[in-house]
Amino acid sequence: MTFWRDRISSLLGTPQAQAGMRRHSVQCVSPLGLHRMSYLEWGNPRNPRVLVCVHGLTRNARDFDFLAQALSEHYRVVCPDVVGRGESDWLKSPAGYTVPQYVADMVTLIARLDVDSVDWVGTSMGGLIGMALAAQEGTPVRKLVLNDVGPVITAESLRRIGEYVGRAPEFPSLEAAETYVRKVSESFGEHTAAQWRHLTEHSVQAIGNLFRLRYDPAIGDAFRSTPMITDMSLWPIYDTIKSPTLVIRGALSDLLTAETFAEMARRGPMAKVVEIPAVGHAPTLFSSAQIDVVRDFLLGGTA
User: Fold this and answer.
1) pLDDT reported for residue 76
2) Fewer C-beta neighbours within 10 Å, C or N terminus of the chain?
3) Distance in angstroms (rounded) separating the CA atoms of residues 148 and 256
4) What's the predicted TM-score (pTM) here?
C-alpha cells in the first residue's frame, strides 16, 4: 500500500500525470435536444479492458484522478462529467436531470468507446446509474463497484443533501471556496491539505473575480422536486443484477445504512462488502487503502 501512496503522491499534479489524462466529449440526446458530455480518459486508448468511473450528485470526473492513475496500467479508465457537471453541457430543463437520462448518456458513451463490456465504479449517484445499467438485460457492465450507495436511500440523507445542493454562494477566493467544500464534505473523512485543495480546485471555476461551483444549480431544483418523506427503495433493480458486485460503505454513512449494506451481501448479486472506518458519505477513493479495495476486487488481486 505504501507503494501506491508514494506513487500517486509523486505523480498527481505533475506533467507526467497530466500527460496520461486526455479530455474528450461525446454528443448525447435528450427529449429537448442534443447535449455534449465531456469525459476524461487515462491509460492506453487501445486497451480493450475499460473501467468507467462515475461521480456523485454535485461532483465531477476529477474525483477519480487518484484511482484512475493507480489503475491506468491495467485499464483504459474513462471518467465522465455527468451532464450538468464539470465540463459537460447543462440541460435546457432541470426535469432532465434524472437517472434514466444519465443511463442513456452512458450507453452512448460506451458505444463511443467501441467495447462490448466495461467494469464500473460508481460513487453515490454514479452507483445508482451503474445499478440501473447493470440491471438491464444484455448489460455491458461486467463488474460493478458501488461506493456508499445501495437499493435503499434514506430520507434523512436526501433531506441533508437537499439543504445545500444548488444553493452554494459565489466565493471571493479559492480559500473561501475550500472552507465551503470542507464543510459540506466533512463526511468524506480525514484528508490531507493537498487532497482538500485538489477537491476544491476541481469543484469550482473562476467567473471574473469570483468562484462558483462547477455544476448547474438547477440540479438542486430537480433533486427537491419530490418531497423526501420516506426512504427510496430500489430492491427490484438490485435483485436483478447478476454482475459480480462490490459494495463499499463509509462506516458513518447516513445514505447507506448498516442494515441495507448487510442485506446487499445476502440477495441479488450477493455483493462482497467492505466498510471504511471513520468515514461517512462517501469514501473518496483517494487513499491507497481505499484504492486497494477497488483494485483487488476488479483485478482479482493480480498485479
Assistant:
1) 98
2) C
3) 6
4) 0.91
| Backbone torsion region of residue 6, taken as left when φ is above 0, otherwise alpha when ψ lies between -120 and 50, otherwise beta | alpha
pLDDT-based confidence at residue 127 (cuts at 50, 70, 90): very high
* Cell numbers standing for residue 63: 474525483
Pairing mode, strands 141-147 and 118-123: parallel
Counting every residue written for the chain, the total comes to: 303
- Picking from 98, 152, 144, the residue whose alpha carbon sits closest to that of residue 294 is 144
CA separation, residue 289 to residues 23, 89, 101, 179 (Å): 28, 34, 33, 26
